[in-house]
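Methods, example record. To illustrate the input and output format used throughout this study, we show the complete record for CHAT domain-containing protein. The sequence lines were provided to the predictor; the line carrying structure tokens was produced by it.
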Amino acid sequence: MRDLLPMVFAAPQEALAGARRVLAGRPTPLHASVAHQVIGIWQRDFGDLRLALRHLRRARDFAARAGSAEREADVLATLGVALVHAGRTRQGMDALGRGVERGTGHTRARVLFRRAYSWWVLGHHREALEDVRRAIPVLRQAGDVIWTARALTLRATVHLALGAVDRADADFTAAEALWGTTGQEHDKADAVESRGLAAFRAGDVPAALRLLDEAEERYAKLGTPTFMLSIRRCEVLMAAGLAAEALAEADAAIKVLDGIGGQSTRKAELLLAAARAARLAGDPHTATARAGLAVRLFARQHRAWWEAHARLVLTEARHAAGRRSGRLVAAAAAVAEQLTALGAPAAPEAFLLAGRIALDLGRAAEAERHLAVAARSRRGGPPLARMTGWAAQALRARAAGSARGVLEACRRGLDVLDDHRMTLGASELRARATAQGAELAALAQQACLVSGGPRRLLVWSERWRATALSAPPTRPPADPALLSGMTAYREIAARAEEARQEGRPVPALEREQRRLEREIRSRTLHMRGEAAGDGDRFDVGTLLRHLGDDITLVELAVPAGRVQVLVCGRGRVRRFEAGLLAAAETEAEHVQAGLRRLAHPGAAARLPLVEAAGRRLEELLLGPAAKHLGSGPVVIVPPGRLHRVPWALLPSLRDRVLSVSPSASSWLRAKRTAPPPGGRQVLVRGPGLATGGAEVPELSDRYGAATVLEHEGATVPRVLAELDGAALAHIAAHGAFRADGPMFSSLRMADGPLIVHDFERLDRSPYRIILSCCDTARFATVGADELLGLVTALLPLGTAGVVACSAPVNDAAVVPLMLALHKGLGAGLSLAEALRDARAALPGDAVHQATGWAFTAFGAA
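The corresponding predicted structure is encoded as:
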């Protein structure tokens, strides 16, 4: 009969069914007590907490009737934990205290473990360690493998909460060895989840994501939902720069928890996770609402540790929403002191916040006190804690008027983040992780603007621009599950597209497509970084030598929201001030809308309006610098938020040899990249084009020996095989940009979409690649100043030059542009030179002019 109790975490559904069978008969009080306790545990951890309390109270009553003090002690412990999770903290701890008094020996040790667990839930870590310290020797002496493993896991978790990663790792390792000798499948899943938490605390985000995903699979097989897993995954997602996903996960878990009447304690923790995620996602109002509710719940539950963390997020959200007051400084300082007293690793964040608000209010002395405490964390601990310390040090230096001190602190802080980013294998994670360095990068640029000259501003503009492109992403592993998932994804996507064209409903196919996307993305995020990064720091002198006296590179920096134009060439760097970034973004959207309309015949009357918008855009983006560009080729290096600008539309650039690069460093790498031997050309024609990819047959005749993939032969595996190491590739295929998932932006092939993840499998992408289709030059701007999209996937993999399109275009007008472009390449011109001449060769009507402006040359080939 008592075998039902260990079954709750070995085979939960079987244990539940067995307990119900016992109660359906005529059980003795002792057996009825066990059965009700089993049902109570199941409902407490996986179902309705109200039902759990009802069954556990009956279990307690039957234990009393059976006259077993040991049985009563065990049930009181289970009931106490349930009451704590229900938010009835005093009642729960009283029940646990009575359980400790009633139990003896082995039973008492199990009760002590559960009281330690409750102390941990409440955030009383010292008390938790004391109880579990008393329990472990007794459990070991009794040979109780299961409860010893649970106690070690709990002690490790408490150590992690206090920042003692090494101690936690030792306990997790010991617990895992014990779990391997048992059949406790739920506990084994919990051990995997705990290892994921330990990996995260040690700074290994990919391993944390992999382990948490593995734990989720194990729980799913058991049919046991676990909200703690959602809380931990949210924490890891936020550290990976995926705050919006963390918010969605937390809110979804809250909805499920409310639906089943689950634990009040877990709801409060999920609300805290949602508040943190909303703040990081730039939604201070949602963050304020979630944090405020979490504070109230934690207060009612008498959970001071958790309440202090929720108050920190609430204060951060109010500050992010624009509040500035002495009361807010006092609130942040009070939270900082409370977190310090609790031994919480988050205390430096609170001191940094108090110092930042005090600086906003001009209270220099008060700010210095708080920032000095926060700055201590720069010397040790996890990467993000050290970055907090360096941010505080940078603010101290700025308040003291030391530009040199600001730059040193920013450099040290960004070096820490560099090391952290290079542990990430996925280019998406590397790009998103840069958001954590945005403040340091901005402080450095502002310091350079005040004192430092244009060269220093250029160096710092480059320091944190397009860094995800500085080294190739880790190649996706030859993982059979990943490869089969990508094949299945292509098949489902192709079927969905076919159904749409035939007017058939596609909800089921779209659901399966989204599921496969989640699986592919999950597996790629598990990759650890292998590349050591680009060891060579950007050097202005090297750039100027490669530019020579002919080429001008124009880098746009945006400290404090205003465009600073850095004109590089002829041995010097000059700075000019242009307009506001926000105004330029608005004007760029107007231009994009105009180009979309001009793609259709009959919109010629809008051409003068688009050209006028181009003139306004030039004034905002280049200002007086437009007159200092020289007469040679121009390279534009815009911030991420301006990469959709059709630069050829700007009057001073219209007749230029013009290329665009994500960074000056990227342009230098492209300039140094040698073409592959053999000069192999590949021409690809995808399905469904309005013109049928009419330029491809003509290009095939022109190149003669080119490999041509078209119709049913243009499948993703064949296209990738031919693209690898090619000198020139021309792809005529429908492009689709996915703002919601930029790594799934695609080119449509015969067997489905060719996505960014596919390109990352190439050993070397084509030296030059021409994408003669819509939206291939669209990007998602993420992190501090990073870009995700088709073009940026190619640049770190060996591609030195790309021609792509930033807007929908007229398919028929693309054909003469592409033919003229290839004519220029055949004459030995670069992509930028050939594109300039191809635009000039087009008819002068609005449709052809708009088509020419929509295409951009990227890189230096």
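Annotations derived from this record:
The CA atoms of residues 358 and 366 lie 6 Å apart.
DSSP finds 38 helices and 16 strands in the chain.
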